[in-house]
Amino acid sequence: MNDYTFAYLDEQTKRMIRRAILKGVAIPGYQVPFASREMPMPYGWGTGGVQVTAACLTPEDVLKVIDQGADDTTNAVSIRKFFQRTAGVAVTEATVEASLIQTRHRIPEAPLTEAQILVYQVPIPEPLRFLEPREVETRRMHALEDYGLMHVKLYEDIARHGEIATAYAYPVKVEGRYVMDPSPIPKFDNPKLSDSPALQLFGAGREQRIYALPPYTRVVSLDFDDHPFVASKADHACDLCGAGDTYLDEVIIDDAGGRMFVCSDTDHCGSRRRAGHVGRLGVPGKEVA
Amino acid sequence: MYVAVKGGERAIENAHAWLAEERRGDRAVPELTVAQIREQMALAVNRVMAEGSLYDPDLAALAIKQARGDLIEAIFLIRAYRTTLPRLGASRPVDTAAMACIRRISATFKDAPGGQVLGPTFDYTHRLLDFALMAECDVPPAPEASATPGPVPHITGFLNRDGLIQTEAAGEATPPDLTREPLELPASRPLRLQALARGDEGFLLGLAYSTQRGYARNHAFVGELRIGTVAVEVDIPELGFAIEVAEIELTECETVNQFAGSKTEPPQFTRGYGLVFGQTERKAISMALVDRALRWRELGEDFLGAAAQDEEFVLSHADNIQATGFLEHIKLPHYVDFQSELELVRRIRAEAELAQAQPEAAE
Amino acid sequence: MMMATGSAAPLFSVRGLTKRYGARIGCADVGFDLFPGEVMGIVGESGSGKSTLLNCLAGHLVPDAGKVIFDTRTDGPRDTLTMSEPERRMLARTDWAFVHQNPRDGLRMGVSAGGNVGERLMAVGARNYGAIRATALDWLGRVEIAADRIDDRPSGFSGGMQQRLQIARNLVTGPRLVFMDEPTGGLDVSVQARLLDLLRGLVREMGLSAIIVTHDLAVVRLLADRLMVMKGGHVVEQGLTDQVLDDPQHAYTQLLVSSVLQV
Prior knowledge:
Chain B: This is Carbon-phosphorus lyase complex subunit PhnI. The structure holds three protein chains of three kinds. By secondary structure, chain A is α/β, with parallel strands linked by helices.
């Protein structure tokens, strides 16, 4: 890969992406169009996040890549390897050690710091897309703050199901201005978006959009006064580390419908177990490979 | 005890090794060479060059070999390579009137200066499997004649001279570059043509066919279809003139479409345009029909709600690399999102069951 | 009827409004004042320019010349044609309302009746589900739609019910000016009568100002205080409804009234 520049993208492209990022930071929640490049991995597999990461990486960075909260899922492995090869940066699985974290569908459980950047992979950046398919119209709706339709959708949910039936990619309003799609994170993670010390960047490659939440931005999940937003999770504790406050994956363990619940954030779960926490099915003192 | 699935890295490496073995196939069969693909699978190579937006038959052939014949995968390889190439400059517009044609046909005139040249076409082959090709067989050379020298003027030029077809004025503005700027809608015609030229052949074929079947019908005739080589010239500022840097093969299609006109403007035929790398005639004709359908606003026609007229629909979905990536990404793990929906459905069901169990208390 | 004294300021003033389609005239040099609580009818045959005029007034079409001045709550009289797009949209979802001839153009067919009525409330910031729903229920009652239809989609409603729902959806924010384009257009005669009755009640009760375009003289006779007759894009006669209908001055109005003209 010696023919490629640091972090794969040429310097001009990185500058173009950084300009888009800066614009996004200046207008929190606003989707900035950018000339997304064709990456050596498929659209929809994190090309937006990869381009944002490539534009932010420095040789001193320590990179962590997670998919569904885990460092060892195949696509996370593949993206991490890509940057190891093209940028030669140090990598880690520990959230606290990372200076840049690229994620798909989760926000790490451990609190982030001002020294960290969180880069989200975004499939469909437009929160209004499934109410209005036309880009020309949705851009106008954002420009005019014409967001009544968004609440109509939430109203319809409650009328039909008794509650707001959106479990992930739950729409938020940023600093009282732009309605934003937080990417398909579970709504459990939504509160972590707000007032975060870390810089949060969102990249959608196929849809050619970048947006941002600068540190300490106010982010509010849309709701009604009498049907407030609830950050819900499975009503269990982690069966491995015993944590009661983390987002859980449900795993089917036998043919009889037996299930167990484990932290989706593998780093968080592992460090808790190393610190001696034991869940219902965990083994005390057992080190995780 | 439960152990979470690990070893993603090993799994990926093993999958790649297996893939390489499958690509090679039975080792008792000689390996394909890139030159064989370039020469004998030329139409596949052409498609990969066209939709990959990179004119390099050797690289396209290599991509086809690497992709095990999956042309969209090959196009993807070419695109990803292309995006890393430095931009040295832009060529001058190619002069297709000066094309050295290997094929040139018109459906609108029986004969015209330059003549009808059938060229190497499948058109009148009977689609019977040629079992002789099962064995290696040498092909006798085709009969030859000397080429007619001089440029071959465009058929639409004859119509234009009489004012019978709407004039396409040459634009001075530099066309936008889809690969360097984000697609913005509404798009100009140069941008649309650019997107169509690298769009998926199957998608454009389907759209073009739909216009013929009445979804925004525009009564197209192939005014002219020509295939051949043209010179690519680049202005060299230091020299003060242009030099020829390459010769490329192109397919160009101009359709003559239904006429527009009113009491004040005499009726005129209108045009659709297709220009594609290589010998890619199905794509070029499809492109011309879709181009024409997208021009409804400019030509004062009604929007009939047809897919082929809908610029945002066509341009957002024509790119097969975008489409295939997003389509296939749904096989990536989604268990976090799925888990959140699972909990939601369980909760709503539990509440509904509770409400059903005590109907009187409900309201 | 009311406000004819001229003491109050007009709610809506139109001056020199002109819209051309190429060489053809859509409407030319239209001017009038509409006072608070007043209902004006615009009548004329198809192609007379009445729909063009209405769409220019409501901001759906951009006229070539003229002024469309609305007495806004906060800033007094403003020319809506020179307003910014956000201001105009705000006006369109608060103080103005537009009732389309075809309810499908004015409703969200995939959204429940309650959601349809609640949309304008939510668009201006209502965030209490219970309150939105209570208001929607109240309005469904006022337009005679049974409360148990609140979660049904309008696609299953009859034409008359759809039109009543569209009216409720428009009036829920208490607009000060309502534009109506042939509101009884596509309905059966018996359904028309009921809708007219309902509209008349609402207009009087809420003190609405309205501009109604119709080719049906019965509609204006029942609803409109004042009448404007259009032909070929021009206003040929205007005055109090009873006056114009009972003693038409212009030959075209005479034809219209004597029903010789099939409109």
